[in-house]
Amino acid sequence: MSEHPAYGELRQVTGYASVLLADNPSPMTLDGTNTWVLREPGSAEAVVIDPGPGDADHLRRVADRGPVPLVLLTHHHGDHTDGVAEFVGLTGAKVRALDPALCRDAEPLADGELIRAGGLELRVLETAGHTADSVSFAVEHDEPAVFTGDSVLGRGTTVVAHPDGHLGSYLDSLRRLAEFPEGVRALPGHGPELPDVRAAAEFYLQHRRERLEQVRAAVAELGADASPRQVVEIVYADVDRAVWPAADLTVQAQLTYLAERGELAVS
């Protein structure tokens, strides 16, 4: 079995889940966007999670695994959704997302809803924070897994991009993911799969607590009117400057969270 990353090759990850990695690597997308193809052995149809960018070769490879009557979206970012229109043209699939504007010939997703597709049962989990419309999908199976989109990545940590992203919501979502039993795999939107979504969520929670402490310390040093970039220059000094614009948004989300808690004056 091939390992991540494997461009242009459908890689089997579980008995029912395969991933095709889009060739769109960047500091924000890691190795690229993971498009997941789900089909229980013996099922005639597949369900696809996040068709990915508008890459014709990538979309054709995914469509060739059809028939695909249903597409599920974890959130609205273009590296997950720019290829949707072309993919629908190839497959005729219906599209479901939390945001009604992203849906095609189907109803929006609802938290807690059970979706039956590809011979599988997938539970919808609202996991807002990275974006307001972020969702994850938990497969209820003897080989359980959670498709986490960008809420939990296979490597590193995710951006909470103010104002669409909201840190308080994200912490709540991580706590929700941390409630899964040990050993449930995380199958993310970027990066390799992880063996335990609970452990990953707990690590993310600890990381966010540490970052908040660093932001508090930076504001104490800089003053309450410090700009997000000034805080980034202290807190994210060891991070690649290519991702500092994203760090600006995350810091704004952190400052907003602290203000909501009454720890900072609202500017």
Automatic annotation (TrEMBL):
TM helices/strands, residue ranges: none
Metallo-beta-lactamase domain boundaries: 32-190
Taxonomy, superkingdom: Bacteria
Cross-referenced SUPFAM superfamilies: Metallo-hydrolase/oxidoreductase
Coiled coil regions, renumbered to chain: none
Annotated signal peptide: none
Name of protein: MBL fold metallo-hydrolase
Organism for this UniProt entry: Saccharopolyspora griseoalba
Lineage: Bacteria, Bacillati, Actinomycetota, Actinomycetes, Pseudonocardiales
